[in-house]
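Hi, here's the filled form for the chain we discussed.

Project: internal
Contact: R.S.
Residues: 366
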Amino acid sequence: MSILVKISEIESEMARTQRNKATAHHLGLLKARLAKLRRELITPKGGGGGAAGDGFDVAKTGDARIGFVGFPSVGKSTLLSNLAGVYSEVAAYEFTTLTTVPGVIRYKGAKIQLLDLPGIIEGAKDGKGRGRQVIAVARTCNLILIVLDVLKPLGHKKLIEHELEGFGIRLNKEPPNIGFKRKDKGGINFTATCAQTELDGDTVKSILAEYKIHNADITLRSDSTADDLIDVVEGNRVYLPCIYVLNKIDQISIEELDIIYKVPHCVPISAHHRWNFDDLLERMWDYLQLVRIYTKPKGQLPDYTSPVVLPDGHTAVEDFCLKIHKNLMKELKYALVWGASVKHNPQKVGKDHVMEDEDVIQLVKK
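And the returned structure, exactly as it came back:
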């Protein structure tokens, strides 16, 4: 029996099952089985190296990577060519773009790579169309822009989210606060630090048994669901920020536009007329959470034209040195920093000092 048939059988059984306390245990088991089958779909078992996807994965350049995901003919290519000045083939029929088209924009001194991915169709997570490769490239991005057509219903948003969820991409979510540690012996040790509405000891044990895990420490630090537990056990989930770009607003009325603006994580634009691009770029910058550090050679003014851009959370002096060259750390004596992260300007700091956006740094070698 093929994997797709097994998946559809489990999905239909889940649809038939009523949701209540008595069936929660059974549904948790089915969800775990479903997650395992989905993983097998993405990574086929054994076999030698097949032919690589032709020209699909693009080398990562710049400081961040943004992928455009959406159904065919919603204006992804028009958006890319008007933002980055890269010509991605545009036509009025579906499936114009067949491979990944990269483009680069410079915004606030950072180089940001934009990827125009081919259109996704329903059932991409089950390997239909080129969906599998498209979503695999989407996993490597720092931010995902889901491009939607304003005229088509928001049902499309649900479908794309469902396809990405099936591939282990979680949009605008935090990783679940669950401690999971495998052991060699001692059985399942289950502790919950707050009241749980869905999971109990038996459900957790049965989900772990489905993965053939019989010895582990599980700590639930928030009210978690069976899906959260499965995500932690699978361990291959990617948590990405996401912006919904509603294209073609030149075809609707002002009243409709006011309603659209209230949808969270949403930016309405018109790719063809280049309307509202500045709002989109500003929102992209907010979601990427990049930190710019300016360099200052000794005895000269700081260079404000080309900052060193670091991801938020990795902005220590050590990260800055490693970004420039790995041997720089060996020669570093101390650093002088001007800006919001220090009390005096300049301040002498060591390698563990964490910098903030638009700080100026001067490295002093031994």
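Let me know if anything looks off before we file it.
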